[in-house]
Amino acid sequence: MTPSNEGSRGIEQSPQLDFFDQEMVQDIGRRLAAAGGWPDESRFPVNLADRTVKGRVLADLEASANPLIVSGYASLDRIIDFTADLSPKGGRLRLLLGNEPFESRKKSFAHGGISFEK
After folding, report:
1. Structural domain boundaries enclosing 54
2. Domain assignment present for 117
Protein backbone atom coordinates (compact mmCIF):
# COMPACT_ATOMS: atom_id res chain seq x y z
CA MET A 1 0.00 0.00 0.00
CA THR A 2 1.46 3.36 -0.97
CA PRO A 3 0.68 6.40 1.17
CA SER A 4 -1.53 9.03 -0.40
CA ASN A 5 -0.46 12.66 -0.61
CA GLU A 6 -4.07 13.75 -0.32
CA GLY A 7 -5.35 14.85 3.07
CA SER A 8 -8.80 14.22 4.51
CA ARG A 9 -10.17 17.36 2.81
CA GLY A 10 -8.77 16.53 -0.61
CA ILE A 11 -5.86 18.97 -0.21
CA GLU A 12 -2.50 17.66 -1.39
CA GLN A 13 -0.02 17.43 1.48
CA SER A 14 3.74 17.01 1.52
CA PRO A 15 4.86 13.38 1.73
CA GLN A 16 5.93 12.12 5.13
CA LEU A 17 9.71 12.02 5.37
CA ASP A 18 11.33 8.83 6.56
CA PHE A 19 13.80 9.53 9.36
CA PHE A 20 15.95 6.60 8.23
CA ASP A 21 15.86 7.40 4.50
CA GLN A 22 19.56 7.16 3.53
CA GLU A 23 19.08 9.09 0.29
CA MET A 24 17.58 12.00 2.23
CA VAL A 25 20.41 11.86 4.81
CA GLN A 26 23.03 11.90 2.04
CA ASP A 27 21.25 14.82 0.35
CA ILE A 28 21.31 16.80 3.60
CA GLY A 29 25.02 15.98 3.95
CA ARG A 30 25.71 17.21 0.40
CA ARG A 31 23.77 20.44 0.96
CA LEU A 32 25.57 21.10 4.26
CA ALA A 33 28.96 20.50 2.63
CA ALA A 34 28.07 22.85 -0.24
CA ALA A 35 27.03 25.53 2.28
CA GLY A 36 30.29 25.27 4.22
CA GLY A 37 29.19 22.78 6.87
CA TRP A 38 27.06 23.09 9.96
CA PRO A 39 26.45 26.57 11.39
CA ASP A 40 28.41 27.58 14.49
CA GLU A 41 26.85 25.64 17.36
CA SER A 42 26.79 28.75 19.55
CA ARG A 43 23.93 29.99 17.32
CA PHE A 44 21.87 27.03 18.49
CA PRO A 45 22.45 26.63 22.23
CA VAL A 46 21.60 23.30 23.85
CA ASN A 47 21.78 21.84 27.33
CA LEU A 48 24.83 19.62 27.64
CA ALA A 49 26.95 18.54 30.59
CA ASP A 50 29.33 21.51 30.28
CA ARG A 51 26.98 24.25 28.99
CA THR A 52 23.35 25.29 29.15
CA VAL A 53 20.90 27.35 27.16
CA LYS A 54 20.41 29.51 30.26
CA GLY A 55 24.13 30.24 30.46
CA ARG A 56 24.30 31.21 26.79
CA VAL A 57 21.20 33.42 26.95
CA LEU A 58 22.39 35.20 30.12
CA ALA A 59 25.85 35.75 28.59
CA ASP A 60 24.28 37.27 25.48
CA LEU A 61 22.02 39.53 27.55
CA GLU A 62 24.88 40.63 29.80
CA ALA A 63 27.10 41.43 26.79
CA SER A 64 24.42 43.56 25.13
CA ALA A 65 24.38 47.35 25.53
CA ASN A 66 20.57 47.31 25.10
CA PRO A 67 19.30 43.86 26.05
CA LEU A 68 15.76 42.91 25.06
CA ILE A 69 13.86 40.45 27.25
CA VAL A 70 10.55 39.06 26.02
CA SER A 71 8.97 37.03 28.79
CA GLY A 72 5.90 36.21 30.79
CA TYR A 73 5.09 37.21 34.32
CA ALA A 74 5.99 33.77 35.68
CA SER A 75 9.65 34.61 35.01
CA LEU A 76 9.44 37.97 36.75
CA ASP A 77 11.54 36.80 39.70
CA ARG A 78 14.32 35.72 37.33
CA ILE A 79 14.13 39.04 35.47
CA ILE A 80 14.41 40.94 38.76
CA ASP A 81 17.45 38.87 39.75
CA PHE A 82 19.04 39.43 36.34
CA THR A 83 18.48 43.20 36.35
CA ALA A 84 19.75 43.51 39.92
CA ASP A 85 23.04 41.87 38.88
CA LEU A 86 23.30 43.73 35.56
CA SER A 87 26.19 46.18 35.34
CA PRO A 88 25.27 49.43 33.57
CA LYS A 89 26.80 49.89 30.12
CA GLY A 90 25.23 53.23 29.25
CA GLY A 91 22.32 51.56 27.46
CA ARG A 92 18.97 50.48 28.73
CA LEU A 93 17.13 47.25 29.36
CA ARG A 94 14.11 46.70 27.13
CA LEU A 95 11.40 44.49 28.60
CA LEU A 96 8.23 43.11 27.05
CA LEU A 97 5.96 41.16 29.39
CA GLY A 98 3.12 38.95 28.29
CA ASN A 99 0.85 36.34 29.78
CA GLU A 100 1.73 32.68 29.95
CA PRO A 101 -0.12 29.72 31.43
CA PHE A 102 2.46 28.92 34.11
CA GLU A 103 2.56 29.93 37.75
CA SER A 104 5.54 31.75 39.20
CA ARG A 105 8.04 29.76 41.25
CA LYS A 106 7.49 32.18 44.14
CA LYS A 107 4.27 32.45 46.09
CA SER A 108 5.03 35.86 47.61
CA PHE A 109 7.26 38.75 46.70
CA ALA A 110 8.90 41.11 49.18
CA HIS A 111 11.26 44.07 48.97
CA GLY A 112 12.74 45.78 51.98
CA GLY A 113 10.25 44.21 54.35
CA ILE A 114 7.22 45.15 52.21
CA SER A 115 5.33 42.09 51.04
CA PHE A 116 3.64 41.84 47.66
CA GLU A 117 1.33 38.83 47.75
CA LYS A 118 -0.05 37.20 44.60
Report:
1. 28-63
2. no
